[in-house]
Amino acid sequence: MNEILDPLILSRWQFGLTTVYHFLFVPLTIGLATTVAIFQTAWYRTGKVHYLQLTQFFGKIFMINFAMGVVTGIVQEFQFGMNWSTYSRFVGDVFGAPLALEGLLAFFFEATFIGVWIFGWNKLSPKLHLASIWCVAFATALSAYFIIAANAFMQNPVGYQINAEKGRAELTSIGDLLTNPVALAAFPHTIAACFMVSAGLIVAVAAYHLSRNQHLDTMRPALKFGLWTMLGAGAATMFFGDQLSLAMVATQPMKMAAAEALYNTATGADASFSIFTFGTPDGQHELFSIRVPYLLSLLSTHSFDGTVEGIRELQAAYSTKFGPGTYSPTIWITYWAFRWMIGLGLYHMLVAAVGLFVTRKGRSPKRWVWRVAIWSFPASLLAMSVGWVFTEMGRQPWIVFGLLKTEDAVSPELTGVQVLISLIGFTIVYGALAVVEFGLIKKAAVAGPAPVETADDGSDTPVPTATVY
Amino acid sequence: MDLAVLWFWIVGALFIGYFILDGFDFGVGISLPFLGKKDSERRVLINTIGPVWDLNETWVIVAGACLFAAFPEWYATLFAGFYLPLFLILIALILRGVSFEYRHQRKHESWKRAFDTMIFVGSVVPALLWGVAFANVVRGVPLNEKFDYVGGFWNLLNPYALLGGITTLLLFFLSGLYFILLKTDGELHARAQKLAVKVGIITIVVAASFLVWTIIMSEFKLATIVCSAIAAVALIGAVALNYLRKEGLSFAAVAVTVAAAVLTLFVTLFPNVMPSTIDPATNSLTIENASSSAYTLEFMTWVAVIALPLILLYQGWTYWVFRKRITHATIEAAAH
Fold it and tell me: Would the keyword Membrane be found if you checked this record's keyword annotation (chain B) (predicted)?
């Protein structure tokens, strides 16, 4: 078949592109909703004006960002049916349920209270208005749980049985589906990473203003908050990432083998972790590498003498179990995505720790330090993206591990031309919107927090300004 | 009652909710070039739906997800089969959604104009194409023995479906105008009233033709006739009430019209969900062969029964919070 017009390849590109793009906005929505709620709570409890300024300032960035998360999210739901109808028929009985739960229990709640929060500044009591942003924060996390539980089924199918007559997977236990060990580890890992991203934004914005010696009364506390969040969220991301890799080794050993490009099963000191490898173009032989002995054993089994299965052994075992075929993902992608994810995560914790040290007791560091801090925001988004690329590419060739292959999941009557049209359309629209979105967030961030207006009665009581479109 | 049948009606109810609520959002968007002569007027129009467009649009996400969970086969056939129309709807919804948020972020006239155009196009396209899509489902489309749609893109643009599309476009436009009448005052209000009378009369003619065609196609099914009649009476009532300046009642009546029109399509469909024009006896998707397992449906029923009343309650409360009319003063008092 003409490869350019292969609906399978085009659909995979489209799904990858639209999903990575969607997940540039989601972490900010999740992280900033809670951040803004925390600032607003601080204002509510202390009455200090700078907390109100921070609430409205990051609230504005939150608003610019959230619309993109909403509209690109609809694409995600529609695509399962549009491009992957065989997949949808096969898993709908199981996979549809968490999506419906997400809609009924989380999306409605989130969408309703976001409107209430944005437009309700002078229509609700301060307490009720504060409650509405907490509702949003809660709903974003809840929706993340359902979608991760759905994704976890693709990584590690549980709570189902195969109905041979209908040729599909059917749900047998919603409890098992929602307590999938992969979901239980992936959820806190992802949420913590979302807070790393939102903290990255806060640190970047605060660093920008502090390096120019402006908005000190708001940006100093913002920087401190951002750096501590970054450090804490980084540690939590690492801790739950470790839990997730244990679950991964137990359920998808091939993914761990691919993460390390480990071709042959290794034990103990031989189960080393390479920081950097330079190999032959086919990726099967290494020419140079820097290795840490025992580390892969530690990551995979939490012991020094553990055994980590290699790609060749797993390939042989899967061939026996599932029939002839290739059962390993594209190794260079999983290998490097895994390293970039971990590396960037560690980098963030380092930036946070160093940042806290150099700004202790109101000290002001050199200019290049602020530059590094500003770049921690794009770096955090990159870490998030490569993490998802790793977990999704590492699942290949399966769309549902052990049950359905990606190549068998695409809509049968879909033509390459149709997908090419939509792929080009999404690319153009998403590309243009990325430019606009980045410009608007930058403009809002550079403008800095607006001064707070005071009440008409002559007192100094701050009055939050109403929002309109 | 069989749970699959119950879910057929729940999915129907969710789409009714979506078309009533996002329907008037679309209508407000369509009205922009007709009513908004000045920037401040266009801002008033957009702010009438400001706090609610997102939650209204969420109805389609929930309807889609419930369709997926309760009728995977229906969802798969419909979404893969109607690939390009759904792609266009998605692009339209994306452009419309971000435009609400982006247009007020810069003061340049050309910037605002660009987003006004995107709101207009982003409202017209889904208002038209949702009607085209649903009319095609009711009319029947070519499905093979694996329930895959094999009709191509142009097959979807048949006269009946196009009439369905124009019907939803006009109905949504009308309900948007009635909503604007409820939420504005002054000159803009007067202009909206004039336009609403004209659009009302055209809508009656077009919607009546579509309903009659549907009745004929259903081979005079009783439920189709009853629901069509309710839709027709409600629409005529809405136009009459609007003429009498009963703003609240005319909006309520047009909401009933939308509900009854969507219901007409669902009762005509019943017990099929996607009838096939090729070998209808074996290739049609029905409530029975398209639905999920009893376990999934039972669990989902519990969730829906508990969640839906609460959803209606807090969404209703939102409309109550933002019940006041939007005026120029409201816009100017704000910070932007």
Answer: yes
